[in-house]
Write a structure and sequence with these properties.
Helix content: 40-55%
Distance between the termini: 42 Å
Largest sheet: 3 strands, antiparallel
Bound molecules: protoporphyrin IX containing FE, 1-(1H-benzimidazol-1-yl)propan-2-one
Order of helices and strands: EHHHHHHHHHHEEEHHHE
Shape: globular
Structural class: mainly alpha
């Protein structure tokens, strides 16, 4: 399968910065969502889940076709709760309906990371909406009840190495788990809407205890009321992952650098960008004094 980015000569950086600003202002305005965490984390998860269906073996799935908009994909149990992010973006799509769904979902995730004081994520437009028939089957997104070997194999399908895998999972510094969505809960402690290396610091510094939660799933809990999934905890069980967790816990700048490149790669998996395709780095609201 080949997906070539469409170059749209009529649209320039300020067209996309306008959409970025609309999303960023709406995140700032609707701050009460999910116990005042806000919409940032779930927008990041939507961009990730719309990209995480990619399969390198036949270059299928991924963000290009915007197929999350179809029932088959949005009703995947792995996508429980993401309807809130899609509803958040709906009025923005209505106002700027020249953008493709794939570009909107990924732009929303980039905006959410940057507005949470995370690293700048370079972003390229050109995804083209595909028909419902192109929607990938359910089951391509990861299952949290697994260890390091599963995590390594899963990320390999997305062309990610150990360093990229650890960096990407660091997005679990944002938001929280919700029983009704995934059968995991917590953290009762500091669920955050700031993008930091906190996830790695917590992994290394907390005492973790494997517990069966009220949904019958196993998760790691800490005395401070933090939680980790089994796939999170795997990052300190595996010697190669552990080395990288320590680096990122001790050097936030190196985490930010690796996250920026890995997240762009995740959001662009499966897309061929022609020579001269534009790449944008958006300004945050703060940088524009908005
Ligand atoms: C092995 C890989 C992964 C697994 C098994 C996993 C699993 C999960 C689960 C179970 C939740 C809770 C969902 C809910 O109950 O609402 C969650 C939330 C989240 N995930 Fe992951 N995840 C993985 C990788 C990633 C990656 C690569 C990113 C982004 C780069 C990411 C970003 C997020 C964010 C931001 C949230 C919080 C959403 C919210 O607060 O509503 N995750 N993840
Ligand atoms: C603060 C922290 O690390 C909580 N946390 C730990 N693992 C997570 C997975 C998804 C969302 C949040 C998660």
């Amino acid at each position: 399968i080949v997906h070539i980015a469409a170059l749209n000569k009529d649209r320039k950086i300020d067209d996309y910065q306008r959409i970025y600003n609309k999303i960023a202002e709406k995140i700032r305005e609707e701050d009460e969502y999910d116990g005042y965490i806000g919409y940032g984390p779930i927008l990041v998860r939507l961009g990730w889940h719309s990209s995480g269906t990619y399969d390198k073996t036949n270059n299928s799935g991924g963000s290009y076709g915007g197929t999350y908009r179809f029932k088959l994909e949005s009703s995947d149990p792995s996508n429980n709760g993401l309807q809130n992010a899609a509803k958040f973006l709906d009025p923005i799509y209505k106002e700027f309906n020249w953008i493709s769904h794939g570009d909107l979902y990924t732009l929303g995730a980039v905006c959410a990371v940057q507005e949470a004081q995370g690293p700048k994520i370079p972003w390229r437009p050109g995804r083209v909406d595909l028909p419902e028939t192109e929607t990938p089957a359910n089951g391509r997104l990861p299952d949290a009840n697994n260890g390091a070997d599963y995590v390594r194999n899963f990320y390999a399908r997305l062309r990610m190495n150990d360093r990229e895998a650890v960096a990407l999972t660091g997005a679990h510094c944002l938001g929280r788990t919700h029983y009704k969505n995934s059968g995991f809960d917590g953290p009762w402690g500091a669920a955050s809407n700031s993008f930091t290396n906190e996830f790695f610091v917590n992994l290394l510094n907390e005492q973790w205890k494997l517990e069966k939660n009220k949904s019958g799933n196993y998760q790691y809990d800490s005395p401070k009321g933090y939680m980790m999934l089994k796939t999170d905890y795997a990052l300190i069980q595996d010697p190669s992952y552990l080395k990288i967790v320590k680096e990122f816990a001790n050097d936030e700048a190196s985490f930010f650098k690796e996250f920026a490149s890995s997240f762009q790669k995740l959001l662009e998996n499966g897309i061929d960008y022609p020579k001269g395709a534009p790449q944008y780095i958006f300004k945050t609201l703060d940088e524009q004094d908005i």
